[in-house]
Design brief:
- The protein is mainly beta.
- It contains no helices and twelve strands.
- The strands form three sheets. It has a five-stranded mixed barrel with strand order 8-9-10-12-11. Strands 4, 5, 6 and 7 form a four-stranded antiparallel sheet that branches. The protein has a two-stranded antiparallel ribbon with strand order 1-2.
- A hairpin with a 4-residue loop joins strand 9 and strand 10.
Length: 148
């Protein structure tokens, strides 16, 4: 069941991805594309394969929820209204051979390190014109590097 937010128990607020085709809600997954010609997987989904340039044979696919931090930075200055510090990271999804950029939560910035395991989570970040809660994605640290 997709997450809902209720201001009145009798009227659940609808939720949807902030951009269609980027995430599925149930189960929470990032959506990518996989090339039938060379097996390259991309995120976000593409209309052509960046590896072999094929335009036919691309299939939409759900990506693995689990990844590891490849590289990161701690952002300490941001526009007004954005809480700092926060971690912005390149996250590898080894099962899909995809690398993507995302914020990372669940650990103090000073505790983040390369190779740390993370897991996808959907998070509300805005309200649509129709009142729907718009969901984005981020990754949450799941455990220490030595336990992974």
């Amino acid at each position: 069941m997709p997450p809902t937010n209720t201001s009145d128990a009798s009227a659940p607020v609808p939720t949807r991805p902030f951009r269609e085709g980027l995430v599925s809600l149930e189960p929470p997954r990032l959506l990518g594309s996989r090339c039938g010609a060379c097996a390259t997987t991309t995120f976000p989904p593409r209309e052509f394969c960046p590896a072999c340039r094929a335009v036919a044979g691309l299939e939409r696919t759900e990506l693995d929820r689990r990844g590891r931090i490849h590289s990161y930075t701690v952002v300490r200055q941001a526009p007004p209204g954005v809480a700092v510090p926060y971690v912005l990271a390149w996250v590898d999804l080894p099962a899909d051979r995809v690398r993507l950029m995302s914020t990372v939560v669940g650990a103090e910035p000073e505790a983040v390190e390369l190779g740390l395991p993370v897991e996808l989570e959907l998070t509300p970040f805005a309200t649509g014109e129709d009142g729907a809660e718009l969901l984005g994605f981020r990754f949450r640290v799941t455990e220490g590097k030595e336990n992974a």
